[in-house]
Amino acid sequence: MDRIWLKSYPEGVPADISATLYGSISDFLAASIDHYRDRAAFISMGRTMSYGELDRQSLAFAGYLQNVAGLPRGARVALMMPNLLQYPVALFGALRAGYVVVNCNPLYSPRELHHQLEDSGAEAIVVLENFAQTLEKAINGTAVRVVVVTGVGDLLGGLRGPLTNFVLRHVRRAVPRWSLPRAAPFNRALALGRLHNLEFAPVEPDEVAFLQYTGGTTGAPKGAMLTHRNMIANLEQVHAWIAQSIGSGSEVFVTALPLYHVFALTVNCFVPAMIGANNLLIADPRDIRAFVKAMTQTPFTVITGVNTLFNTLLGDDEFLGLDFSRLHLAVAGGMALQRAVAVRWKAVTGKPLLEAYGLTETSPAAVANPLTIEDFTGAIGLPLPSTDIAIRDLEGRDLPLGEPGELCIKGPQVMAGYWNKPDETAKVMTEDGYLRTGDIARIDGRGYLTIVDRQKDMIIVSGFNVYPNEIEDVVMSHPGVQEVGAVGVPDMKSGEAVKIVVVRKDESLTDVEIIAHCRQYLTGYKTPRHVEFRDTLPRTPIGKILRRELREKVEPQGETQETG
Fold it and tell me: Which end of the chain is more exposed for a tag (fewer CB within 10 A), N or C?
């Protein structure tokens, strides 16, 4: 498309970046730590860790893996922890020693964890003791021979306060009994690692840094191979996009999204390290009381999240009373941002909620709105520097401006492929080097992209395409609705019909009222035929609504309305 989006770039943002500023993530981390050694890097439960301490602790952990555990260069190291100080220490340590990091969701079942450990060939794992019982059930039949177990308070030192004590008591009560013979305590591993000098092995840019597993919405999860070049390129792309608006050393990021997820990994872990920012780690964002209290105690300037997280915060009275005077950047990604949430966010905070777009396979950032926009537009923004896009039909032909088709992405941040799955890689990579995203999008004359919906989530009613995002946006505009998910269900007359699953803000709200509301804004075949009310909606670990699970129960609760 001749990069028509470049004419809409904010002043100072380059068309292209260099993906070779650093040879590896290890080189980048060493440079950042050296530059920002005395600055605060992470805050967790009232405990602050400087970049200098992060340097010492991560080198100690690297020394343990290399010299005590005896892991060979290039071995896969799994991390299974929420947002605690131990995560960046283990992450940076593994990468600095030349290992490949495999991020694991702490809420995995034993079956899911076993698949990921077996598929990746991980030889070591660091796990929070709360989830050690899961590992005990999953470890047999895998290559894991080094286990390090950590507790929530391991790096908190002697620091205690009312919030810390509450969290520790709460978390420790949630530790099931486990047995992992020869498992090493985290602090013991650090102590042993300090006795050895780390031998830095040169890492080539095209070596794999992460096996980052996709969510597994279709079939078994696949490990996206993200190389050092991929990650450095994406870091440079994001930095180029935000550099005009972000102050070096003065920023405090709120990190509620789990760092094991690729969104937070790049945007909340590596980007702050690049600019010497501080990072407020939220171990459990579902605990709104502790989450908001932490934000009260730490004035913040940047917050990232998904639509459901922002919607939850906006429903909390204490959050509404926070001081937002220092906040100047709020970014939503991971799922579609709903207009009602974006409008309310600005009304409460005085700052716009900017939407961005990415995928595990793109390390993850690919498209973002300029930081200069003031209001919600519904667009995900412009392709980042050095990123090309194409909108194509099912046969791979380019479509004209304004016509919806599959979004395809090309750039230095696109993965090297799926781990040990060449056939799956071939399905998503085109001959001319584009990644097929599976998302339906359109581009306008200014180069702005709008996601219509996921290809697999599209509902076909009597031959007409219906996109769940549009339905959800309309339903969310009703003042009595807290959350909603829209899916297609079998229908004898139309093939599929629209069903919505609603969490009510107003318990007196009826399905008849919701359908009447939808009829004002949607044509007949798009209007929901079925309404189900639930107390909660199923979500992924980062808060994305699982439409797949909403489809599993198709019987409507309450009256259904024929909408033609």
Answer: C
